[in-house]
Amino acid sequence: MSASVDLSVTLAGVRFANPVIAASGTFGYGTEYGALMDVSALGGICSKGLTLEPKPGNRGTRLVETPAGMINSIGLENPGIRHFIGHELKTMLSLGPAVLANLSGSTLETYVEGARLLDGTDVPMIELNISCPNVKAGGMAWGLQCDAAAAVTGAVRKATGKPLVVKLSPNAPDLVGVARSVVDAGADALSLVNTFTAFAVDIERGVPVFENKTAGLSGPAIRPIALRMLRDIMLGVPECSLERDTARAAMTRPGAPAAERQPSGSARFVPVIGLGGIATWRDAAEFIMTGASAVQVGAATFANPKAMTEIIEGLAAFMERKGYPDIASMRGIALC
Fold first, then answer.
1. Among 52, 67, 211, 251, which is 20 to 30 Å from 12 by CA?
2. Which of 69, 100, 49, 33 is nearest to 277 (CA)?
3. Cα 113 from Cα 119, distance rounded (Å)
4. Residue 11, SS3?
5. SS3 313
6. CA-CA distance, 112 to 153, in Å (whole number)?
7. Given the residues 132, 146, 240, 336, the one annotated as active site
8. Alpha helices in the chain (DSSP H)
């Protein structure tokens, strides 16, 4: 990797060595891919979706391949937050990349208690999942309407002092409105988009493939729509806008005098992590040029376990070729 470019980014005070983060539910707890790729090379790792109590996940078929992606109905299978804290977290933190704990729940109370437990750990950042379409209770229901999204974000915000990323659903009728609501309720950053609600039929039996009927579509098929939704957020949520981002980036550029690194005025910058079908460094560059401060990669890892390290290397080579010294210098340049 070229030493002439700086891939590091800082999100809500948490430093990432580069902008590439393993997406929740696609990378386990970081150790599962250790024999296949250099996990330490990643910028961050987001845990599997965690709930207060253990969840067995959905019954029946869980994965269906599509021509340009896959539909999944895993159902947030996980051992529970207490087990995660006692057994998986220490190892995750030792791997090197920044760790995000993905927090989900069925009720406001379970979200709050989960946040309270995570607040007492060394995990540097929480990703609040209000967008999972694969569970019958909670999950995406919290992220579809502005009032509900604001309520759960505000409650979790009061329960933890950790930097809080809120993961948004592309299925919300007013995604920009939901984004504004969670920012107003205290979100430090946003991640978008989660999977799109999809449906599949077993034509031999004439019944739905999934027991939950609908499930979540991910992969390259959703990338152009996810990219458009990122643009909508960047143009529609002032705290995420390019103007504030650019000003903040200039103040936090490595090597700048301390006086220049202080934020001016009372503007609060809320960075956005882009995801949805990212499989190559070109895809990642598109998201960054549309305003994303970092990216998450999920389904691509199943097809190519080295996808994320290839994205990191490709971004560095591209930035060197184009003369971009750091991520901030290319971030948001395609917005107009």
1. 52
2. 69
3. 10
4. strand
5. helix
6. 9
7. 132
8. 81-83, 89-94, 108-119, 146-159, 175-184, 223-236, 242-252, 281-289, 299-303, 307-322
DSSP assignment, residue 168? Answer: P
Length of the chain counted residue by residue: 336
Q: Whose structure tokens read 């190559």?
A: 280
Q: Look-up: residue for tokens 């609501």?
A: 181
- Chain mean position to CA 104: 13
pTM value?
A: 0.91
Low-confidence ranges of the chain (pLDDT < 70): 1-2, 132-140, 242-266
pLDDT at residue 142, rounded to an integer: 82
- Residues facing residue 217 across a β-bridge: 71, 196
> Residue 278 sits in which domain range?
9-54+76-200+218-329
Question: Under a CB-based contact definition with an 8 Å cutoff, are residues 29 and 92 in contact?
Answer: yes
Please report, for the domain that includes residue 84, its CATH number.
3.20.20.70
- The answer to whether residue 132 is catalytic is yes
pLDDT of residue 267: 74
**Phi-psi category of residue 219: left, alpha or beta, with phi > 0 → left and psi -120 to 50 → alpha:** left
pLDDT for 2 equals: 60
pLDDT at residue 140, as a whole number: 53
Q: How many domains does the chain have?
A: 1
Cα-Cα-Cα-Cα torsion 160, 161, 167, 172, nearest 10 degrees, comes to: 70
Q: What is the pLDDT of residue 133?
A: 54
Q: What are phi and psi of 87, to 5 degrees?
A: -125, -40
Structure tokens of 258?
């301390």
160-191 pLDDT, tens per residue? 999 999 999 999 999 999 999 999 999 999 99
Dihedral (CA of 137, 141, 142, 148) sign: negative
Residue 69 lies in a domain: no
pLDDT of residue 176: 97
Q: Assess if residue 205 is contained within a domain.
A: no
Amino acid at 114: G
Quick one: pLDDT at residue 55? 93
Q: How many helices (H) and strands (E) does the chain have?
A: 10, 16
CA 327 – CA 17 distance, rounded (Å): 11
Q: Would 46 be classed as within a structural domain?
A: yes
335 found inside a domain:
no
